[in-house]
Amino acid sequence: MTSESKPLAPAPAYRFASKPDDDGAGLDLLGVGRTLWARKGSILFLVLIVSMAATLWALSLTPIYRAQATLLIEPRASRVMSIEQIYGVEGSGGEFLQTQVELLQSRGLAERVVRELDLINHPAFQPAAAPASRWALPSPAAMMAWARERLDFLPLTLPEEIAPVETPSEIDAMVARRDAIARALQGAIQVERLRGTQVVGVAVEMADARLAARVANAVTRGYIDSQLEARMAMSMSATNWMNERLEELRASLRQAEDALQRFREGQDLVDVQGVATVATSELSMTGTRLNEAQRKRAEMENEYRQIQSARASGFDALLAVPTLLYNPLVQQAATAESKARAKVDELAQRYGPRHPTMEAAAGELERTRASLREQVNQVVAGIERNYQLALANERALSSAFNATKSEIQDISRKEFRLRELQREVDANRALYDTFLGRLKETNATSDLEPANARIVDQAVVPETPVRPRKSTIVGGAALLALALGIGLALLLEKLNNTFKSTEDVENALNLPVLGILPRVKTRDRSESLALFASPKHKSFAESVRTVRTGLLLALRERKHVRVVVTSAVPGEGKTTAAANLALALGQLGRVLLVEADMRRPTMARAFGLPPGSPGLANLLADTATTKDALHHLDGFDLIPAGTVPPDPLKLIATPLFEELITLLTKGYDYVIIDTPPTQAVSDAVVLASAADAVIYVVKSDNTPIPVVAKGVGQLLQNHAVLSGVVLNQVDVARAQRYGYRYGGYYDYYGYHGSKS
Fold this sequence. Notes:
The chain has helices at about 30-40, 40-60, 85, 95-105, 105-115, 140-150, 170-190, 210-265, 270-310, 315-320, 320-325, 330-350, 355-445, 470-495, 500-510, 525-530, 540-555, 575-585, 605, 615-620, 625-630, 650, 655-665, 685-690, 705-715, 730-740, and strands at about 65-75, 190-195, 200-205, 455, 515-520, 560-565, 590-595, 630, 635-640, 670-675, 695-700, 720-730.
């Protein structure tokens, strides 16, 4: 097959590369489930083996029994003062109970139990005897017994017949052994407090069930006895201390009472509170009168200042003062003076100054003026007197107010001192009474100190051991084995050598990725071949457009080009990719889709063509014309495979096929040829060697990398122009969970994908 144009770009140098590690892989539950289900046999076998080994080991362990006694510990009712408060040994709430728990686990109580039960001679605490040696010499006691049996006529005395005399070294050894047994017993005692209650459980774990019950009961009894002994000892000590303290308090009370009485007599105090109340009322009344006097003095002073200022400016200015202006007497005199002046002015127009009538009017004017001056002077004198009286009244009230205030302050100081002395007396008397009452109570009950704890349940001999928990051991081992098996299965899945992302393709094949096609759930084959035109699958259509754009950039927007679509193995979706790419290119020009995969043809039935429709095989066999084999579909033209020949490669390798493709290419902008897989047959290698562009379809997470690499290598060795790779059937949801990256192909559109 020849091409009208030279290859657009040289074949890229092929190289193998290791599969990149996936960073931040997420969790795909469906994928994990499939992986685990596939390896369920190995996982279950591992669990079975580990469980059997754990069972044998658990059966070999020594059983440990747990005996538990229950105590009810009640803090004694709080009193004004208790003996325990004096010594600081009584608490309340959680602190008190926690203290009792520590006492139950104390070494002293453990030693008390060792002495009470004589555990130093108990077989469970005896040191393990060393195994007898075959060649060991007999002990001196055995030798003496042998000699006495045979030489009974001699005066021999056996060691056990002699009273033992303990040496200092033996005493130290016994003390050390008792201490070791007490420490071991202390570790075997477990005290648990029931949350929210005052109930405490005392448990003892030992290999001997009866001994465990005896020790638990001994611990509870020993705790109660030790508490009673401690209380009795503290009561005796506290009684002696309180007698001494009571004498000191009695002397302090007497001194405080004497000081209070001396102060009363020295200050001649009878009723300080009543005197202070009367003085306070008087001070309040004096203050009210003082405020009124100050207000009145201020008013008088204002009038006085106005008159003094106006007097310096003349009589007329004095008359303008508001106080004089609105005075009734002054107004009356001023009115008479005004009338007399008006009369003089009227007569002056008719008579001369010496006319009797004129003289009489002038005399009347002088009399009214004199009367006006007299009235003004009287009012001014009255204002001055009132001002002096108001000033004197204010000073007198201020002096009385200050005197009363000083008196109240003096009374307050005396009252404060009196109350201070009274408080001292009251405090000493209350403390004295408290100690006296507590001392009498202690003396009365010194021989009866009830315990604050009682045994609720005594320990009984346990019938079943608590350790080892064989079911727990076996179950834990089984779970651990299950987790290990799951981990190994997932690790093997992680090592799966397939393409999962565009980075895998680019790193392993050194080829660009034209685009990725998401996995779409379809009902039949015809729907999958027309996903690009379906309005329900816009995301898939956008992915096909991305592939189309990459192809056009690789072709540099040339026309009349041939594009071969192939894959490594069957089932990777190359036919679906070719059909949808044809639909996408059909929006830009005339497109012809040629089904050259004549070994497994599917397009005729998928696009609804009648059975037996002629196609490429018929054209090459010259049993049909181009008009018969060419089918016009919505968006592009199709030449199906036609009647399947026995040897498709023989037809493709003929010059007739090259001439047919060359002729068809002239009538279309793009000719897309769907070929068989490269690893199945060699048809794709023959067709791709003369194509303008080759698109290699790889199924995501399915086809092994070496298989794809081998197919790409074959194409490159035959000088095929590989434009790029299309990563097909990508499970986007699973890929996102695993953290696979696709170079932003899905980041913008937010694809989710589904299984086809």
